[in-house]
Structure formats: C-alpha cells, structure tokens
Amino acid sequence: MKILHLSDLHLVDPDRSPTSADAARAIAAGLKCVLGTHSDSDLCVISGDIAEDGEPAVYEFLRAHLGQSTMQQVLMLGNHDNRDVFLDVFGSNGVDANGFVQSKIDAGGYLFLSLDTVEEGSDAGGLCEKRLDWLAACLDNAGDRPVILAMHHPPFDVGDPIMDPIKLQNPGDLARVLDQASTVQHILFGHIHRASTYSWNGIICTSVPAFKPNAATPSEMSGPMVGVLEFSDGQIAKRVDVIPQTLGRDPQEGD
To answer: Is residue 199, in this structure, part of any structural domain at all?
Structure first.
C-alpha cells in the first residue's frame, strides 16, 4: 500500500492578497506535481489544517484542484478548519453518522481509518465518546487486516513548548480503544509542521512538514513537501519529497 501524506496547507483565500495568491499557486502546482509523479499511490491523505481561517473559497479552491486527479483522497480537519464550511463545500462523503469527518477505506490489503480530532473553539484536539465508539466499531470489524490510523493532533508530547499544550487532550481514552485491537500498525498525524517519527503505545507514528511554501516572502518561496509511505508485509518505508517548483509555477512551464 502506498500513501501520499500531506498536511497543514493553511490556505488563505487566493483573492485576499498577492501573497495569498502566490501561496495558492505554489500549492496548486505542488498538488499537480505530486499527484502526477506518484499516480500509483493508493491514497492521498491531507491530515488537517487545510485552511488558515476556514474560508469557503479555500475549500472550493482545493476541491477544484484535487478534482483533476482520479486518485482516492482522504481529507481531514485540523484546528484551523471550519467543519460546517468544509461540509458545505465537500458534502457528506467521508462523514460518520454523527457528522464528524471520519472515514474508513479498504485499500491495498489495509484498512485506513481517519479521525476528526477538532474541538470547536480550541486549538487543542479531542475525541468524544461518539468518535471513540466509531473507532472501536471499525476496529472490531477489521478482522485480521492491518490498520493505518490518521489524525491531525498527536496523542503525545513532541517536545515543543508551543505544540505540546495543544496536542490531543485525552490520549488515554484513545489508548484504551487501541489496546482492544492488535492490528493498528501505524499512525499518521499533522499539526506540528515537521517530519518526525515517534513510538507511542507501541505504535510507530509519523508526521510530515506543512504542505505549503516554506518561506515568508514570495521571492523566496520553494516547493511544498510530501510524505511518501509504502507498507508491505509489516514493513514501512517512508521518505519526504520536496516538490520541485518555485513561486507556484508548474514544473513544466520553464522560465
């Protein structure tokens, strides 16, 4: 199973300013490049903070650019997103019975589960009983299939004084559910804007850098970065690729 892992686009309405327009062009070109280069992937996962301020124009922009690919996609929410606005644009596909943006996908012999850790009005994450019950039911029905779990907020400290207070606030409740299953092999997460690998509750957990231009000024923008994960026979291979374009130009456009 091959997964493209993107996270933390933090898109702003491209019409807001020249800077937001440059950033949007960079992200659009990056999406086109990565989806084309890795077209053999089973899933493209965006693990939250799609928008900086939850603007409708951002979700419409992303829908238009993702719609150019036939690859199966999983869109998740982070603390900067607006669940209601997201659902107005993308609809109820990938939403559970309680209105949370959580999905279950069979792909490449694996069961992929994404969690909605957004708590309204808070930058920290949480999982209420309804979301945990959904996860428990999915794991109960997983059989012997290996499971990959994705969430925006990490359920552990990462050693950052800014990010640690706004991690998942009830990791013990998540651990309790996961302890009932032995098939969860990997957790993907976002939120911290950097590539990392941790072991938590006996499970390998990985994050990727933010998929956005990595400089504050348009003249210095370089391409976003994407995680490429390949799972086979219990083994995991991961790398982080830099998308080769500057200022949002399509790599095929030339100078």
So the answer is: yes
